[in-house]
Amino acid sequence: MGILFTILSILLVIDAILLVIIVLMQKTKGAEIGAIFGSGAAAAVLGAGASNILTKITYWLGGIFLFLVFALSYIHHKTVTSGSVVNEIPSQQAPVKQQEQTK
């Protein structure tokens, strides 16, 4: 499980970086701050339908991001609960406080 967790973590970081880049490349409806981060270059390379392509890529990357987060959470939950110390000590064997003997 450790290798799978590492691979999924690396994929999550790559997906998060790509998601940030794609969101910053999109044109905004307000102040056009997207032009500062290369929105004009994306339109020049991808053509007039660049906003539709970028929107679809954003949806896919967001879905992949959510899937990876849930998968990592599930794997982490399984590894933590399987190696829990609390489950190994039955309640009958819990240490009992000894009473002091009086003289």
Walk me through the structure.
The chain is mainly α. It contains 3 helices and no strands. The termini are far apart.
Summary keywords:
103 residues; mainly alpha
The biggest beta sheet, please? none
Rg estimate, integer Å = 26 Å
Alpha-beta content class: mainly alpha
Unreliable spans are: none
Percentage of residues assigned to helices: 55-70%
Number of strands: 0
What is the straight-line distance between the termini? 58 Å
> What is the overall silhouette?
elongated
Average pLDDT number: 77
Give the amount of beta strand, in percent.
Answer: under 5%
| Continuous helix count | 3
Helix/strand order: HHH
Offer a concise description of the structure.
This protein has 103 residues and is mainly α. It has helices at 2-25, 39-46, 50-82.
Topology, pairings included?
Layout lengths: L1 H24 L13 H8 L3 H33 L21
Helix pairs in contact: 1-3
